[in-house]
Amino acid sequence: MTGSLEMDRPDDRNRLDAMAQGVIGKPLDRPDGPAKVTGSARYAAEYAVENCAEGVLVTATISKGQVVAIDEASVRDMPGVIAVISDERMVARPAQGGAGESPVRNVRQVEYWGQPIALVVAETFEQARNASKQLRIEYRSDDDAAIDQHSRDVPIETHGEPTIQGNLDKAISQAAYAVEVTYTTECHNSAPMEPHASIAQWDGTTLTVHSSLQMLKYNVKELADAVGLDPEDVRLLSPYVGGGFGSKLGISPEGVAASIAAMELGRAVRVVLLRQQVFQCVMRRSETTQRLRLAADSDGRLVGFGHEALVSNLPGETFAEPVTQASDFLYPGENRTLRIDLARLNLVTAGSVRAPGEAVGMQALEGAMDELAMKIGIDPVELRLRNIPERHPAKDIPYSSRKLAECLKAGAERFGWHGARRSPCHTREGEWWIGTGMATAARVHNLNEAEARVTLYPDGTAAVASDMTDIGTGTYTVLGQIAAEMLGLDRNDVLVRLGDSSFPPGAGSGGSWGAPSTGSAVFLACEAIRTRLAARLGCQEEELTLQDGFATVRGQTTALSDVLKGDQIEEVGHFKAGEISDKFSAAMYGAFFTEVAVNAYTGEARVRRFTGAFGFGRVLNAKTATSQCMGGMVWGIGSALTEEEIFDKRYGHVVNPDLAEYHVPVNLDVPHLDVVLVDERDPAASPLQAKGVGELGICGAAGAIGNAIHDACGVRLRSFPFTPDKIMAELGDP
Amino acid sequence: MKPFEYNRANDLDHAARLTSDGARPIAGGTNLLDLMKLEIETPDALVDINRVPLGGIEPDGDELRIGALVTNSACAADERIRRDYPVLARAILAGATFQLRNKATTAGNLCQRTRCYYFYNTEMPCNKREPGSGCSAIGGFNRIHAVLGASDACIATYPGDMAVALCALNATVEIATAEGHTRSVPVRAFHRLPDDAPERDNVLEPGEVITAVVLPAPPGGKHVYRKVRDRSSYAFALVSIAAVVRMDGGAIASAALAFGGLAHKPWHDERVDALLVGEVPSDALFDKAADLLLDGAQGHGTNDFKIPMARRTLKAVLREVTGDAE
Ligand SMILES: Cc1cc2nc3c(=O)[nH]c(=O)nc-3n(C[C@H](O)[C@H](O)[C@H](O)COP(=O)(O)OP(=O)(O)OC[C@H]3O[C@@H](n4cnc5c(N)ncnc54)[C@H](O)[C@@H]3O)c2cc1C
Ligand code: SF4
């Protein structure tokens, strides 16, 4: 045994189930929970750093053009002002996830409203913010900014290779049943509770930055590249992250600005994005226009499948919201067309926001599937069950473990799904129409290279270290559980340390790959430790039973401390994604069922019941996994009903850049969320047989709500979010 | 935030002296501080009035006097208000959040400023923030804007809930003038229409301090506050209606309706109240009331929906308030 594994083939050994400690999967509390609720967990901006200056970013107030002059004199003499920094190393955009290099610099070339152009540094935050408002900037504005998302009169290019198979047009025209519809979704913002924040310190050789980031191993390179240092000389610390949702995958402008200022001024500098800047200069989820074409035979089996999307991003960005990601593998149809077109707009960078692709792709697809079920006149659950393909419809490879049918059935049963077909407007309670709807959940399974170090101490306790982050998902908890299970320790005897770039590089938190990838690295390190323990005990690793700090071999039980005899054992696990994804189509699946009430007068829609059944491989911790599913479903409610980052069509700025007017769901919008975890092991997913769960709960959730609205009041909307005005416009007399 | 001077007043005279020198009163600070941070408001001086004895809810004959500093939470929880003026308690509870209502005061709530997106963005022209600079909401995104009583200078709405109920109740604002006098203004006349001076939200003169809001004798009847909004809580009204209606023998004996989200002030239209009185409730009557209310209503693009929404919400409210159902 070694501590490394490249995932080229399924790992059928299913080792975790053979372990004795029995903590894996248990709904254990988070070890970091008390620190978070008592406020002792420190977030990036909260470190008490001596003599720390405060910086506030100044952002562009035009959508396209040049900064001609920055009049430093306009603020130089203001109280407390230390410096105005507009260094050519400053970055104009955030880095995309996994970039590993500096994002676009050249801040004087303005490409969107809100682009950072300078940093004002002062003694206090209030002074810096005040001066940032007074700093006079002269622009030369171009008149060809492309800011109207709904205009086709902008540069549009095809992104990547479209999938074109058979003849979809013909399939549609000859189909027993066909649906051809266009759905739209608007821009979303991650809106993490903790805004992007950094404190940079420079000692002449090393740059140390407390920052709120998701993927440190890439972030170190991005920051080093931006400021012109060797990555060895950059240290990032992100032990606690107050939500990221993709917006902290790459470094953002405040960290680079703080670093440059610290290096120039020779003192620590803190920069926190203002809430408005979180909306205006970090990352948006692109709006989408999605054309869906579904052709079914007389039995309701798909013979044609088309999903074509138009999304947008800034000139030069390679990211395009991968709207058709699940459409690639979810449903059959030998005649297929999948494509993504990318419009170039002068709006804040589009990038990954929780479940890029499926979050918006699935809600549109599942709306169209509901329309197809109505047309055919069958139970929408039955339509899904009839359309689970044998093999990947385009690549002709097998699926790994897939619990879609089980989720559909378990969810329907838990919810009490009616099953039978019925016409909308069947139930009225006072002013409210009541309806139910369902949708499939699907999200592609991702893996990333990861390392983690595990140390077994002479006293029989252990420590796990990785630069992996816990962005509120429960990573501390599950990594500890994996090590405790493998080493036969009480969970409280395993200390997990994360979010320090000096630790071995983990997978980072993104794409739901954190737990399966970094968890696998922990698993591999533990396997290597077990091998060394076995050697000390003169047995094979497989013969070793570790439980409660004792090792048992052939009936002989020894305390770990006696096996270790004062030594400590340390191993680094190294996990690589390998080629498994070429051999199996691996994904997480689920099903949503919801009951929605629609006010017959005002069009207000309120979710009253919401059940989700999910299969995502081994459950590492039932509590944190359930929370992830719930969080996703809450996002689904926002996506369905309220969330929309609105841009002014004339000026290109965000109209609603704060949490008062960008409406995420509040408690009262969220009913009791009923989550069913479907038991599964997926050997092709990871040596843990686990997949990812951080994003699955969104993927399709809004579709179920839209379908329930239709069932309730007969209104079929296709432009998310379904705000009261849009629903009301289609309602008849109350 | 622009640097400013901060003083704390211990009594009304002290406060009045400071306000007549140009200081702005600050009560809960839940609106003013936010606006100062964004430099939408840049007062040179603040006078903290929280120690001025303007608290307490006291009866005065048949009337009930709510001190200017009574918090929204305390007001909504008051037994007399819940019993005799439930529309007020419900309107307050429909606004903001627990945390905000614990800080927000009666006077501060009345004086809260618009939520117009362009008023909040200091880079955008806005006549209310910077007289004469123009109105960005006209021709822009104006989903939350006015359909009644707007002007070419400003189409903003008054965003609050409490004042809509006060308007239906025909309450009075008690004001201490800079000269040390007291004057009273009906809530219905307290907020202004924008006309050509949208920088003035209400009729308060420089130096004046609100001391109380006085509720008239309990009106009886059935009270409804209906707020239509994008999410269930923590969102301003798209349209809101406060209704106090008394029935007698199947006909409407008295009616007082006020509307939020439609105009630069809580909207009250005497003609609508008068139309209803003496009539037997019917859909035709409700339609007539809506016709009258919305006569002259004008949308500005993204807020066009408010006109049918106001009509439909009015029908729902009138059905509820004139019906037997609780
Ligand atoms: C996110 C958010 C959501 C909200 N949602 C709602 C909602 O849904 N519905 C709603 O109605 N409100 C809502 N509010 C607004 C809230 O009700 C007000 O902020 C609050 O009522 C203001 O009261 P205050 O005491 O904090 O006022 P302050 O902020 O202290 O003052 C506000 C204004 O009143 C003036 N003022 C205060 N006291 C006096 C006085 N005695 N005499 C003269 N002038 C005075 C101040 O000078 C200032 O101009 C919301 C606020 C926030 C931040
Ligand atoms: S509507 Fe009024 S507050 Fe809004 S931009 Fe126009 S003038 Fe300013």
From TrEMBL, chain A:
The molecule here is called Periplasmic aromatic aldehyde oxidoreductase, molybdenum binding subunit YagR
Transmembrane domains' residue ranges: none
Identify the species of origin: Pacificimonas flava
Pfam families reported in the protein's UniProt record: Ald_Xan_dh_C, MoCoBD_1, MoCoBD_2
Q: Which Gene3D superfamilies match?
A: Aldehyde oxidase/xanthine dehydrogenase, a/b hammerhead (3.90.1170.50), Aldehyde oxidase/xanthine dehydrogenase, molybdopterin binding domain (3.30.365.10)
Q: Which PANTHER family match?
A: ALDEHYDE OXIDOREDUCTASE MOLYBDENUM-BINDING SUBUNIT PAOC (PTHR11908:SF123), XANTHINE DEHYDROGENASE (PTHR11908)
The Gene Ontology terms for molecular function here are: iron ion binding; oxidoreductase activity
Lineage: superkingdom? Bacteria
InterPro entries in alphabetical order: Ald_Oxase/Xan_DH_a/b, Ald_Oxase/Xan_DH_a/b_sf, Ald_Oxase/xanthine_DH-like, AldOxase/xan_DH_MoCoBD1, AldOxase/xan_DH_MoCoBD2, AldOxase/xan_DH_Mopterin-bd_sf
Looking at the record, the residues that make up the Aldehyde oxidase/xanthine dehydrogenase a/b hammerhead domain are 38-143
Automatic annotation (TrEMBL), chain B:
Q: What domain of life?
A: Bacteria
What Pfam families does this protein map onto? CO_deh_flav_C, FAD_binding_5
**Where is each FAD-binding PCMH-type domain found?**
1-220
The answer to keyword Flavoprotein applying to this record is yes
Name the keywords, alphabetized. Answer: FAD, Flavoprotein
Q: Give GO terms: molecular function aspect only.
A: FAD binding; oxidoreductase activity
Gene3D superfamilies, A to Z = 3.30.465.10, CO dehydrogenase flavoprotein, C-terminal domain (3.30.390.50), Uridine Diphospho-n-acetylenolpyruvylglucosamine Reductase, domain 2 (3.30.43.10)
Q: Which InterPro entries does the entry mention?
A: CO_DH_flav_C (IPR005107), CO_DH_flav_C_dom_sf (IPR036683), Diverse_Substr_Oxidored (IPR051312), FAD-bd_PCMH (IPR016166), FAD-bd_PCMH-like_sf (IPR036318), FAD-bd_PCMH_sub1 (IPR016167), FAD-bd_PCMH_sub2 (IPR016169), Mopterin_DH_FAD-bd (IPR002346)
- Asked if 4Fe-4S is a keyword of the record, the answer is no
Tell me the protein's name: Periplasmic aromatic aldehyde oxidoreductase, FAD binding subunit YagS
UniProt source species: Pacificimonas flava
